[in-house]
Amino acid sequence: MQSFLQDLLFGARMLRKQPGFTLIAVLTLALGIGANTAIFGIFSGVLLRPLPFPESQQLVVARGSSWIPVVQFLAWRDGQQSLTHLAAFYPREYHLASQTETELIEGAEITPDFFPLLGVAPKVGRNLLAEEDQPGRQRVALVSARLWQRQFGNAQLAQQTVRLNGEEYQVVGVLPESFQPFELNMRKPDVWVPLALTPIRADGELNYVIPVARRKAATTLAQAQAELDLKLAQLKQQRPELFSESPREVRLGALQEQIVQGTRPALRLLLAAVSFVLLIACVNVSNLLLARAARREKETAIRAALGASRWRVVRQTLTESLLLSVCGGAVGILFAVWGLDLFVWLLPANTPRLGQIGIDATVLGFSLLLSLATGILFGLAPALTALRPDLNELLKEGGKASGGGANLKRTLNVLVVAEIALACVLLIGAGLAAHSFLRVQQVEPGFNAERVLTMRLQVPENRYTTMSELNGFYQRALDWLAATPGIEAVALANNLPLSRANAIRRLTIEGRSDSVAADFGVVSPTYFRALQLPLRRGRVFTEADTANATGVVVIDETMARRNFPDADAVGQRLRLGDEGNPWLEIVGVVADSKSNGLEAASYPGIYIPYLQRQGILVESLVGRRMTLLIRTASDPSQYVAALRQTMREIEPNQAVTDVQPLAQALTDSVSPQRFRSALLSLFALVAVLLAGLGIYGVMNYTVAQRTREIGIRVALGAETRDVLRLVLRQGLTLALTGVALGVAAALALTRLMKTFLFGVSATDPLTFVGVALLLTFIAVLACWLPARRATKVDPMIALRCE
Questions:
Q1: Which of 252, 190, 249 is nearest to 220 (CA)?
Q2: Hey, CA dihedral for 406, 409, 410, 411, is it positive or negative?
Q3: Which of 55, 184, 310, 518 gives 20 to 30 Å between its CA and that of 494?
């Protein structure tokens, strides 16, 4: 320990004597370690940190093609042996009425076992009781601490109620502030009510729930899956009609994995990319240390001559490297704290577990280990050069250090080539991501999003109980909003374009035996005018297309092209779903529009008049959950307050949510691509900067070591261009070798990015050639300054100093 402290103090003195070298090395390492720490903070918070529930690794969720029918859940629940708890929830939205306004909040219907399964107890009050999930019982609710504080402040729990969807619910419990609900089909739920499994729900094939379970400690996931499969097989024998539409394979998976599975590939890609930045930083610092070691060769030789063992010399070198890396890590943590907010801001809004992201003990531990590993990594090459000093050659120099031999120069050259190769791979990856993002932005959505404001309506189930009442409410809203000054068009639709939420339905075309699939939208007649969707053939809907009129549909060009390639689609008939549904006549063909994201291939689409949805669609939510699209004469944000006031006048109990310009929704739809492109470009920029500094440093060192040689060449008649060519040739040889190796590595590695790319190949020649030329230009620039300095060498001064 005493020897180690001596090495540490000596290393600190040596670093303090060279503040310029120390500052550059620490900042270089801080960039690499800080970027890795920030990305690992995101990676850990989203993917690695356990869910905030006791023994969360035992929590599992059952998923099929969508959710699980209630009858399957009940069959699984009865008599199961592999689970300690089995609960279910059904995400919902509720209109919460207060003294001043009505707001829409998230919530869920839950079975009484839900919170005991999670290991969560209310901080005030009690959990739901087993008998409270029966129909006809008193309405009770659990609320979040956030909602309780907003609604009741410091009031006592007794006899407090909340009004949800026009019904009074007694609050029986308040959840603790620390409770963080898992993000599975809901983001920020505020209320939970009993899930009453009525006979209608139990027998209804389309009434789904999300089952959540806790495995017994001695039970594996495979054993729980086998028991579930057996229960469903028995149910299929008893109730075959429930499985007639399609096979319903239900798979168990870890709850945390189900929450984050869509985010894992992108975060892994970013973690790999930022690791390249750290490797380049290590190579840079290693080059600096090697050049510094060359100037300290005499010191090393004297140490060895006085009896220092090779291990003692190596230990001193590694101690200085670790001291540098720890300082770089400390500064890197500061960079990570600052940069993490930026990275989180760039993350897509639908990224799960955003609240878990931060710098915690795990991330700090990772940063410390990374710093130590980095110190060993970049200190290894200088340490190895100190293993075999040539004492006779060094000590007979008359007090001058040799400046490094051929082995040192080869080592420096190899490290520079590796640095350029790593930068090339990262820059090509960033180029592909940026090219892909540019291609996505160039995709025409098929509609004009400018000056369109969107508002989501969720009509409570206790309001407008008949279809005619509901249609009357929508018609009043359309008429009143259209009469607002500055409004050019108002339309109604069941979903926003690009929302990835439209429904895929099977339909039959008259005269054909097979069925086809299409993406359907329920819209008002003004929908096409509000979005300025071009009409190709026929007509769009009119006010005459009511429930009593002949059923009609409008299809898009993809639907027409795929199903009517040799005939006019207008006048043809099709039918949705079962044979009992009516035939619908195609009256028009409109241009394609992107309903499932700009990067998704166009899917056949059909539009149905919202007044004719009764008897055609079986989804109960179609009609109660609708979106208003309002085309304005100027900036849509200027009309928000007036439109909200109009909606309050139409229906005081109606909440209006998700008010935003459609152009913003269009921008948000490409946020995953923007996030990947922005971070990869940032990392590539840092990598190129470090690579440029690396080759500049090596060439600067080379010129300094060849000063005598250059002086002799100039004395013998070498001209300026000869000296320039000498230095540039060496630098370009290293750069081109690194670029060639980097391109070869990128050809193999960028294939892993194929799933993230749109409209560009993983081996796009334009990107590869552009990156190669860019790195070559940067290398020429980095070599030019040392080369120019070499041409200024005065042969008399160069020879005299030798």
A1: 252
A2: positive
A3: 184
Neighbouring residues of 406: CB distance < 8 A, sequence distance ≥ 6: none
pLDDT value of position 402: 47
d(CA 634, CA 637): 9
Residue 305 to residues 299, 315, 386, 400, Cα–Cα distance (Å) = 10, 17, 13, 16
Residue 68 near residue 228, CB atoms below 8 Å:
no
Residue 34 near residue 332, CB atoms below 8 Å: yes
Q: Which of 455, 532, 527, 541 is nearest to 490 (CA)?
A: 527
Give 387-418 as a DSSP string: SS--HHHHHTTSS------HHHHHHHHHHHHH
Q: Which residues, in sequence order, are CB contacts of 24 under 8 Å at separation 6+?
A: 288
How do residues 328-353 score in pLDDT, each as one tens digit? 999 999 999 998 988 988 888 888 88
Count CA within 13 A, CB hemisphere, residue 680: 30
Q: In this predicted model, which residue has the larger pLDDT, 247 or 755? A: 755
The pLDDT tens digits of the residues spanning 645-654 come to: 888 888 887 7
Sign for the CA dihedral angle at 475, 476, 481, 484 comes to positive
**Residue pair 287/697 in contact by the 8 Å Cβ criterion:** yes
Mean pLDDT for the stretch of residues 451-468 = 83
Task: Please answer whether residues 410 and 746 qualify as being in contact, where contact means their C-beta atoms are separated by less than 8 angstroms.
Answer: no
Give dist(CA 723, CA 517) in Å, integer: 71
The single-letter DSSP state of residue 486 is: T
Helix/strand/coil percentages in the chain, nearest 5: 55, 15, 30
Instruction: Give pTM, 2 decimals.
Output: 0.82
In terms of average pLDDT, the best of 133-137, 148-152, 530-534, 622-626 is 530-534
**What does the mean pLDDT of the chain come to?**
83
* Residue 516 bridge partners (DSSP): 507
- Measured in whole angstroms, the distance separating CA 152 from the mean position of its chain's CA atoms is 37
